Amino acid sequence: MDIDYNLVQRAQMLLTLDHPLTQVRDILLREGYEQEQVGELMDATEEVLNYLVPPQYDENKIGIDILHPGEEKAQGRKPMVDILIDKRSGKVELITPQQPETWRVANEVRKAIKRQRQGMKYCH
Questions:
Q1: Contact 103, 79 (CB under 8 A)
Q2: Per-residue pLDDT of the chain in tens (124 residues, 90 and over written 9)
Q3: 31, 54, 84, 102 — which has fewest CB within 10 A?
Q4: Please, how many CA atoms are within 13 Å of residue 13, restricted to the half-sphere of its CB?
Q5: What does the CA dihedral 73, 75, 81, 85 come to, rounded to 10 degrees?
Q6: CB 60 within 8 A of CB 91
Q7: Residues 107, 113, 114, CA angle at the centre, nearest 5°?
C-alpha cells in the first residue's frame, strides 16, 4: 500500500516532538488520515523503533513483558520487554515509559526489591 507522503511527514514531526506512538496514532486519526494507512505506518514505525533500540540483555538482567489494555493475549503475540531489571544492582529501567501500566508494575517491583534488600540486611 502506498502511504500518503503528508501522513509520513506529519507522523515524523509528531515523533520528533517526543509524542508516544499511541498518541501519534490518535492525533493522526483525529486529523482525518485514513485509518488503514495510519495503522500500517504506526506498525512499521513501532517495528523499526523496537529493532533500533533493543534492550541490552545479559545473564544479569530480567525482562518483564506487560499485557497492556487493548492488547490481546494471543499465541502469536510477539513478546516485548516493558521493564528491564538488573539482578546485581536492582536498577529498574523502563523501556515503555509512555504506558501507565509500566509505571505501576515498576513501582511494585521497586517496593519488592527494597523489601528484599531490607530482609537481607537482617540476615547477616
A1: no
A2: 577 888 888 888 887 777 788 888 999 999 999 999 999 988 888 776 665 555 566 678 888 888 777 766 655 556 678 888 888 888 888 888 888 888 988 898 888 888 877 776 666 5
A3: 54
A4: 8
A5: 90
A6: no
A7: 90
CB-count burial class (<10 Å; 0-12, 13-18, 19+) for 82: buried
Beta bridge partners of 61: 86
Q: How many Cβ atoms from other residues are within 10 Å of residue 26's Cβ? A: 13
Residue pair 33/7 in contact by the 8 Å Cβ criterion = yes
Q: In whole angstroms, what is the distance from residue 22 CA to residue 66 CA? A: 16
**Cell digits of residue 60:** 544479569
The full DSSP string for 1-59 is -PPPHHHHHHHHHHHHTT--HHHHHHHHHHTT--HHHHHHHHHHHHHHHHHHS-----T
Based on DSSP, count helices (H) and strands (E) in the chain, helices before strands: 4, 3
